[in-house]
Give the backbone structure.
Amino acid sequence: MRSVDRVTRSLRALERTASTSRVLNLLAIQADSGHRPEHAEHPLFRNRILNTALILKHRLRNDDIFLFDEARPTATKIIIPFDRTDLGLGGQSFFVGQRGWVELLREASNDRTDMTRDLATLSMIDMLPSLDPFLLREHLRRHGMNIAPCYFALSSGDLAQMQGFVAAEITRLIELAYRHTGRTSGAHVARLVEALLSTDVDERLEPLRATLVMEGESFKEGVFSWKGFLYYKWMLTRLWPQMATVSGEIGQLVISGARDTETARYLDDARRRLQGGVVVERNAVQRAIKIYDDAFEDLIDNGKPQAFRDFLLRAPEMFISLGEKVGVISHIASYWRYRFAEGRTPTAHVDEAIDIFQDFEGGLSVTLTS
């Protein structure tokens, strides 16, 4: 499995560059936060081996589908490294829900005790379209699970790419927080952006806490929500141009192979439904983001922290819907580009085209009509 599996073969690359929404790197979280009492007191998984695994959202390939009793386009993949100090050696992998997966998990994690809680956690993770930490945290919390905040950090790859975007978003607020000191240099803004995006909420954010008139746990919750909306806004700046291109290519897809009249009608109707459905989903996401933007503008323009503070504390309620929509749009954009190279006319056999369209339609939350 070490040499054959394409994912385990590139574990080092996953560790460095993987998107937060695609990979949950528990080994990296242990390295960064294993010294914190909360890491052990409120773990994501009780089994220590499983709690250092890599979890991926994975598009099933043809040689994966036979592992399941029911057809499904994506699955949650668990990778347990053979050597936690050298990911290049690969690891043992399996999917949540494949035949015999519980026994594979027990064997890989060396655990014959009651794993009910960990199995339930994996099943809840498998329900989600992505591993977006804001969606994941709210989903688990709604099911009564108290997990330490360190498990919901952004990946290093995403953090690096988000720095400039977040700086541009919050510079005006930083100027408001430091209006009496004049300390708003580029380096100063960069330090505050780093503090805002980090796992910890520490004294570096004190001026922002004072501006928002928030205390203790409410400020920590507020910062988490704030990061969530900044993350979604950043994700969407990347997704919308991709989706515009993909939507056009869906209409241009050349489908080969014989088909009857009913199949041909489905394919034509599915193209139109998908193109329209993506627009509807986009509009719903933009409405949610606008609620955040309006609350933020009210704070900046009118100096009213109350509305923005109240919004931040209510915001996690929006993460389920928002995270699911962004996850589905991201899946459509990323899988389409994985399957069809940019700049070439997309071509697929009729059976594959049906599979792709049904997968995409099944993910969209809107009711699709022709």
Observations:
- The first helix runs from residue 11 to 17.
- The CA atoms of residues 1 and 208 lie 50 Å apart.
